[in-house]
Design goal:
Elements (H helix, E strand, L loop, with lengths): L2 H35 L7 E8 H18 L3 E8 L1 H13 L7 E5 L3 H6 L9 H4 L13 H5 L2 E2 L2 E2 L2 E4 L3 E6 H6 L11 H11 L12 E4 L9 H10 L16 H12 L13 H9 L3 E7 L3 H6 L11 E4 L15 E5 L6 H11 L2 H11 L6 H5 L7 H18 L9 H16 L5 H16 L1
Parallel strand pairs: 1-2, 1-3, 8-9
Antiparallel strand pairs: 3-11, 4-5, 6-11, 7-9, 7-10
Helix pairs in contact: 2-14, 9-10, 17-18
């Protein structure tokens, strides 16, 4: 053997050993990286999420500890932000060079805006599919809640706090007025016939002290959802197939008049009622009906610290029936992962758990949040009070999907909603006629969407 051959042989052996070492290091590194994706005892991972302050603290104190029983090395921190400030803060974070958040909790109409600026990860794309548990069943979600997280054919977010506009009614006040309990088939005409009898002087002092209804009347972004649910129940829509306003019609004006007529049976000062005011009036037993978001059921019918009512006193169902069917309105909180985070796996691990059947059940029982999975709604709930809620949710999801009952979906949806808030409020206050308010809103929204 020549010296050259010997050197080549020795070099070949060294190269082979180095290659093997590199492969081992690579494999070890991958294993460490995968392990660190969900954190370790020595190196936990922290996931920061922006959320509505209305429920951020509750989730932090009740849901995160449950999650950590399964995934102890992922620290989830919720940053509660007032609802009016959320979209602006998320957009700034998503478009900034040094984003603070790994995941975003997003209101129903905001997904298009977030998606258009590239803020969100495709949750059905290859990157997320590779770290998605094989038992995570996308087909198990109800269509209406899941669609809230979709834009332009891409699933950017998943439903974590599903919600719909529902009708709550006080069984005691109906019985005292000598009325049968309403049903999901009750029409608007039948509702107003009952309303005449529900406004009463309960203590016989010569002054009415209980009323038929309270809901959104004040100028705010969610007030138009009441009018829209009536519009949809009468077969109307916000936009036509070309994406142009379609609500400035006789049916639209009639629906706004129905919304305004509710004030005749509301407590004094009802025009100033929004979410909180209407909720307190119902919880105190002052009004027989409340049109509000279903997720307030637990704190309204179950939690004695926040309500005077009990589950036996509170009925729950969809809004009255119009010419085309019952009414409701979708209002889903969905969660998506930041496209700029370096904690994708940990973020998706938490969102997967939260939207799994197990996570949904925990969320419903402890925080009162509504589930989106068909299997969850068809199963026996963790708490008895959830049984009528689940039954109503299944119906409401179907009604919402059939009637397209949600806010305008567009990268300019927030601007459109603010226009509706202004003009619907003017119509309710009697500052303009219903048809004029809708004509002005349609003209402004067409320009905004263009």
């Amino acid at each position: 053997m020549s010296s050259e051959t010997g050197v080549l042989g020795r070099n070949k052996k060294r190269l082979t050993a180095m290659a093997a070492a590199i492969v081992m290091m690579s494999a070890t590194g991958s294993a460490v990286q995968a392990e660190e994706g969900q954190g370790t005892a020595e190196n936990p991972v922290t996931v920061r999420i922006i959320a509505n302050e209305a429920f951020a603290n509750t989730w932090q104190t009740t849901l995160v500890p449950e999650f950590n029983k399964v995934y102890p090395h992922i620290e989830v921190v919720f940053d509660g932000v007032p609802y009016p400030d959320m979209l602006a803060k998320m957009m700034l974070d998503a478009t900034g060079t040094d984003p603070e958040y790994d995941a975003y909790l997003i209101d129903d109409p905001w997904v298009p805006q977030m998606a258009e600026v590239g803020a969100l990860v495709d949750l059905k794309g290859d990157e997320i599919a590779a770290i998605t548990d094989e038992t995570y069943d996308w087909d198990d979600f109800s269509a209406a809640p899941l669609a809230a997280g979709e834009w332009a054919g891409v699933q950017y977010a998943v439903p974590v706090r599903s919600n719909v506009l529902l009708r709550f009614y006080n069984r005691t006040l109906y019985a005292e007025a000598g009325l049968e309990e309403p049903t999901p088939e009750q029409t608007w005409g039948e509702f107003f016939a009952d309303a005449e009898k529900l406004v009463r002087d309960r203590d016989a002092d010569g002054k009415d002290d209980v009323w038929a209804i309270s809901t959104y009347f004040v100028r705010e972004s969610l007030t138009p959802t009441i009018w829209q649910s009536i519009l949809n129940a009468n077969g109307g829509a916000l936009l036509d197939e070309d994406g142009k306003p379609a609500f400035a019609t006789p049916a639209g004006a009639e629906s706004l008049q129905i919304h305004k007529r509710l004030l005749d049976y509301a407590p004094p000062g009802g025009l100033g009622h929004g979410f909180s005011e209407s909720l307190q009036a119902f919880r105190q037993g002052l009004v027989a009906n409340l049109f509000n978001w279903g997720s307030i059921y637990k704190a309204t019918a179950v939690d004695s610290a926040s309500t005077t009512l009990t589950p036996d006193e509170v009925g729950i169902q969809v809004l009255p029936v119009g010419s085309a069917g019952a009414g409701t309105h979708r209002g889903i909180w969905i969660a998506g992962i930041s496209s700029k985070t370096d904690k994708t796996e940990a973020s998706w691990t938490f969102l997967q758990w939260l939207t799994s059947k197990e996570g949904e059940s925990v969320n419903a029982a402890l925080a009162g949040s509504f589930p989106a999975r068909i299997s969850t709604l068809e199963s026996e709930p963790a708490e008895p009070w959830l049984a009528p809620v689940y039954q109503t949710l299944k119906h409401a999801y179907e009604v919402a999907a059939e009637g397209g009952m949600w806010r305008i979906r567009s990268p300019r949806s927030d601007a459109a909603q603010q226009i509706l808030a202004d003009e619907i409020a003017r119509g309710l206050a009697g500052q303009v006629e219903a048809d004029e308010a809708l004509d002005i809103a349609a003209e402004k929204i067409e320009r905004a969407l263009r």
